[in-house]
What we know:
The protein is mainly alpha-helical. The chain has one domain. The chain contains two helices and no strands. It has helices spanning 3-29, 33-56. The radius of gyration is 14 Å and the shape is elongated.
Amino acid sequence: MTSKELLYVDDALGHALFLSNQCQQAVNSLQDPTLRKHAQQLVDENRRIFGCFYKLV
């Protein structure tokens, strides 16, 4: 993997982690069960994406 590709993967990891953290904050602050469930699904999906990118390294 080239250094440019590694920088891309590092950037993608950062974005996935940021989005996961933002969605987790939403889960913690939302009162509506439907919105909480949707936000939790986003947390799970971004953690899955993070894992996929992490495996590339």
